[in-house]
Amino acid sequence: MDKSLLSKSLLGASFTLLAIGTGLLLWQPASLDSSPLSDNTPIRQSAGPIPEKAELPTSEYLQDRNQPQTLQSTTAVLQAGDSLSRTLSRLGVNNRQIAELLQSDEHQVLSSLKPGQKLTTEILTPSDDLQRLTLSETREQTHVFTKSAQGFSYQLDITPMETVLAYKEATIQSSLFVDGVRAGISEKLLAQVTDIFRWDIDFALDVRKGDRFALLYEQKMIDGEKVATGNIIAAQFVNNGRVFEAMRYQAGERTDYFTRDGLSLRRAFIRSPVDFTRVSSQFNPNRLHPIFKTTRPHQGVDYSAPINTPVQSSGDGKVSFVGEMKGYGNTVIIDHGQGYTTLYAHLNGFAENLIAGRSVAQGETIAYVGQTGWATGPHLHYEFRINGVYQNPETVDIPFDSPMTKDELVAFLPYAQKLSKRLKGSHSQDFSEYLARLER
Ligand SMILES: [Zn+2]
């Protein structure tokens, strides 16, 4: 550092640089018109713009303010339990300016701090003057408070997020979730996988070692960094040698998953309308009744489940009966239209406001498992009828949900072809060879 007394003329502005014992240089601008700084400028910029010129001392009488001003930037990553004023204090903000911040119009965005968020101060020292406070709420959103003539002005900065298609594949050795996470797939995406294919694959029972799956999904990026994942756009799941495929598409009002031929993966009925522990009695037209010891056909399936396990309507429809039926105990019957009806018996209770004539949606809770009527233990007795004829609920051919219209299909097919190609092009060689072997 140059310790000699020197004076410089720069763009008509004259600067006096004084050497003092500590080695610090004092900057004494004779004019405010001083934006270009020489190489040995005494201002140490850590971040942000050069302080406003009007902030700089102009009078030689204000000797104590005639010190080098440095803008110091400090960042704190919030921890659980951090309070705003304590954190600001720790970051060097004085009490007067903390009060000013809390009076600003948008101060409430500072009142819901969460662990992991970043709070950054830019303070002019030694005048101890906060110039700017930023709260990075997410990678996308930053709240900025800038010192102004009237306290602090507020601005929300949005960093644009870009969405790209990303690809992942995995082979199951122990479980979908363990091997999926090991392959770098988030649990959120894995939950989407089980949701998409739940109509064809029972993920609790059917998945086996050697099953494979592949995904094309939305990857959200900011400045080239992965920040979040969105929807699965296309997926393949090979279960026990059978290949299932799903493509996300908006057909009319609904966005759903379809096969490459445009068939909805969603079915008109859920296979089993309760989360059961086991099938305690199968559909059997010639069964010996456990109580009466006579041949009595068992016209449905019994699903063993704890008392009060929710029972869902297996499809969209209208309630046609709610109440007690001899032997069946508390019972609900749903009419799904086109000749389809389902019956739910031995219920402990009904969902609130469930009355005959009301519409119910697929998956809606209509009642709770019980042991009413002639039942030897808590279970759901479930019947499935087509035009009055009892069907085996476990094996009945369940129709696909409302198919695409012809126009929708015409638009979908070329898209599906493109997506298929993209998926194929993303497969590892190993995965491609595996699929090729299955197709032979
Ligand atoms: Zn039964």
General description of the model:
Residues 170-285 form the Csd3-like second N-terminal domain. The chain has 440 residues and is mostly beta strands. It has four domains: 6-68, no CATH class; 71-158, Nuclear Transport Factor 2, Chain: A (Roll), CATH 3.10.450; 163-266 and 401-440, Roll (Nuclear Transport Factor 2, Chain: A), CATH 3.10.450; 278-391, Distorted Sandwich (Glucose Permease (Domain IIA)). The chain has helices at residues 84-90, 95-103, 176-182, 187-196, 406-426, 429-439; strands spanning 6-10, 13-19, 25-29, 70-77, 118-125, 129-136, 141-147, 152-158, 162-171, 212-222, 225-239, 242-251, 254-258, 278-281, 301-304, 310-312, 317-325, 329-337, 340-350, 359-360, 365-369, 379-386, 389-391. Mean pLDDT is 83; it is low at 1-63. The structure holds zinc ion.
Task: Annotate the secondary structure layout.
Blueprint: E1 6-10, E2 13-19, E3 25-29, E4 70-77, H1 84-90, H2 95-103, E5 118-125, E6 129-136, E7 141-147, E8 152-158, E9 162-171, H3 176-182, H4 187-196, E10 212-222, E11 225-239, E12 242-251, E13 254-258, E14 278-281, E15 301-304, E16 310-312, E17 317-325, E18 329-337, E19 340-350, E20 359-360, E21 365-369, E22 379-386, E23 389-391, H5 406-426, H6 429-439
Antiparallel strand pairs: 1-2, 2-3, 4-5, 5-6, 6-7, 7-8, 9-10, 10-11, 11-12, 12-13, 14-15, 15-22, 16-21, 17-18, 17-20, 18-19, 19-21, 19-22, 22-23
The structure holds zinc ion.
Cofactor: Zn(2+)
GO molecular function, one term: metal ion binding
Keywords: Hydrolase, Metal-binding, Metalloprotease, Protease, Zinc
